[in-house]
Design goal:
heterodimer, A: alpha/beta, seven-stranded mixed sheet, 12 strands, globular, B: alpha/beta, Rossmann fold, six-stranded mixed sheet, four-stranded antiparallel sheet, 10 helices, 10 strands, 38% helix
């Protein structure tokens, strides 16, 4: 079925307009969480309903879409979202970072530097960086409004007191454009530096929580830290078993039940590129 | 009148109605730097309402509260923006709750509890924050070894002392205390009072202490206000009011203490 019953990219035009308005506002106030009327999508919450709605709203017929999940193009979430848009929008899809104009991601930012021609869409489970410190939504909003962010450092303090270093490894809080503290979604903190002064537009969509936020191109993004415990992007101190890269973010793969381990690049496209291997279509 | 002779806190005709129910009526007084004022009275006499009005947690139905900020300017607290009020609350003021769980973050370590205000005013050096927290724990007689334990694991008396440390770390000029010794056993109360008295004198704190315990008032305060049914019925020097009460109700209150 070529899905003639669907509007282009699944959502109706009025919904897309509403989401685009939220996106524009988010771009105008970097790091600020803009509420939007999130729709039910034909997938469960937690599978990227926010990211999918953002992608659907900005997608045009000439766009080339890449979807990654944990850096990989061929895991369930990535494959099904890619197929979803191939079917409902008929857009061209790719696995190559350099060829894509829109990249929807869960967790990772591609290793290949992004350009001004590209948009990165994040799927966000919990947009509120203060959520686990302050349960009241009314209070967190007020704290954002007043830039009352001392509590964020209490969390980092606790980390150091308990573990001797800042043990937060993902969803590491950042300050955007010197104003709003933002949760970069569960990206590993290894990727935080890539958000700073990134050439591509970065959009964040949280479907269940009904929030959209954004980092415009070339915006200053600073990871929070202490003077005597500076931010450190962490990675497994190994090199990729397939391509040999020693500067990429690695996934640990269990190979047998006798303790066998393999470390490979989490960005599958980047790894394949380095190996010059036959490419998957 | 020179700048430092001006009162720190000025209450003018403070009145609060909860609907038709009276909270407190026409309370006026001036509090000077380094002065401790005790507000005593039975339950329901409007003590806590008054404290909440003074600390801007409640808006008065009539009257106003003025405060002399660190820059020497006396301003009506209702005119401050919320950001300014919050800043005041975490720098120049302290608020000690009767229930320590309200004033502390029970699940984060004692060190972070004490350090929170410092981080809120921009301290970004872990070692220095921790060092200051250690000093303060020591000052309120909590074993610095326990700096990484959350207050959940502390006894009632320790929690109360931790709360005091958390409030005093930014060296406030004014501290509000709501029954600081309520719910503690007598020996722990005595120790806490001793500690408070030491700190108040040492730091030259001004304080408004709400209590129904006249012993607390006698030990800590310079002046005393007796409240009944939402109104101040007697106001004077502590020993004067306690030793020679004028109003019948004050006499009753004083005479109802069990002889030591």
């Amino acid at each position: 079925m070529n899905a003639p019953a669907y509007n282009f990219a699944y959502l109706d035009e009025q919904t897309k307009r509403m989401i685009r308005r939220a996106i524009l506002k988010a771009i105008a106030i970097p790091g600020y969480q803009v509420p939007f009327a999130s729709r039910e999508m034909p997938m469960p919450y937690g599978w990227g309903t926010g990211g999918v709605q953002v992608t659907a709203s900005i997608l045009g017929p000439d766009d080339v879409l890449k979807v990654i999940d944990q850096g990989s193009d061929d895991t369930t979430n990535a494959v099904s979202i890619r197929k979803f848009f191939a079917k409902t929008a008929g857009v061209q899809t790719t696995t190559r970072t350099a060829e894509a104009s829109i990249i929807q991601t869960r967790h990772r930012i591609p290793e290949t530097p992004l350009t001004e021609e590209q948009i990165l869409v994040f799927q966000v489970p919990i947009p509120e960086p203060l959520r686990f410190l302050e349960p009241r939504e009314t209070e967190t909003r007020r704290m954002h409004a007043l830039a009352d962010y001392g509590l964020m450092h209490v969390k980092l303090y606790e980390d150091i007191a308990r573990h001797g270093h800042i043990a937060t490894t993902y969803a590491y809080p950042v300050k955007v454009d010197g104003r709003y503290v933002m949760d970069p979604s569960p990206t590993p903190k290894f990727d935080n530096p890539k958000m700073d002064d990134c050439a591509a537009l970065q959009l964040f969509g949280a479907g269940r929580e009904k929030r959209i936020y954004a980092i415009p191109p070339h915006t200053k993004v600073v990871s929070l830290d202490f003077e005597d415990h500076p931010f450190e992007p962490s990675r497994t101190p190994k090199s990729c078993a397939l391509c040999g890269a020693d500067d990429t973010y690695l996934d640990e793969v269990v190979t047998d039940d006798k303790g066998g381990r393999l470390f490979v690049c989490s960005d599958s496209d980047y790894c394949e590129d380095r190996r010059g291997a036959e490419r998957s279509p | 009148m020179s700048e430092t002779d001006a009162p720190l806190l000025l209450a003018e005709g403070l009145t609060k109605y909860y609907g038709r129910q009276l909270g407190c009526r026409e309370v006026s007084f001036a509090l000077y730097e380094g002065e401790v004022l005790a507000v005593v009275g039975e339950s329901g006499s409007g003590k806590t309402t008054l404290l909440q009005l003074l600390s801007t947690q409640l808006a008065p139905s009539a009257g106003r509260v003025r405060y002399r900020l660190r820059d020497g300017v006396t301003r009506d607290l209702a005119e401050l923006s919320e950001a300014e009020r919050r800043f005041l609350f975490r720098t120049d003021w302290g608020y000690v709750h009767q229930d320590a769980a309200l004033g502390l973050r029970m699940n984060v370590s004692a060190g972070a509890n004490v350090g929170e205000r410092l981080m809120a005013v921009g301290w970004r050096h872990y070692g220095r924050i921790r060092g200051t927290a250690t000093q303060w724990l020591d000052r309120v007689e909590i074993d610095p070894e326990r700096i990484d334990d959350p207050p959940l694991t502390y006894s009632g008396g320790m929690r109360q002392r931790l709360q005091i440390a958390r409030n005093l770390v930014t060296q406030p000029r004014l501290v509000f205390m709501d029954e600081p010794t309520g719910g503690l056993d007598v020996s722990v109360q005595a120790r806490l009072l001793d500690l408070l008295r030491g700190l108040v004198t040492e730091l030259g704190l001004a304080a408004v202490i709400v209590t129904h315990d006249l012993a607390v008032a006698r030990l800590l305060s310079h002046r005393i206000m007796v409240m009944k049914g939402g109104e101040v019925i007697e106001h004077g020097l502590t020993d004067q009011v306690l030793d020679d009460p004028r109003e019948p109700y004050s006499q009753l209150l004083v005479s109802s203490i069990l002889p030591a």
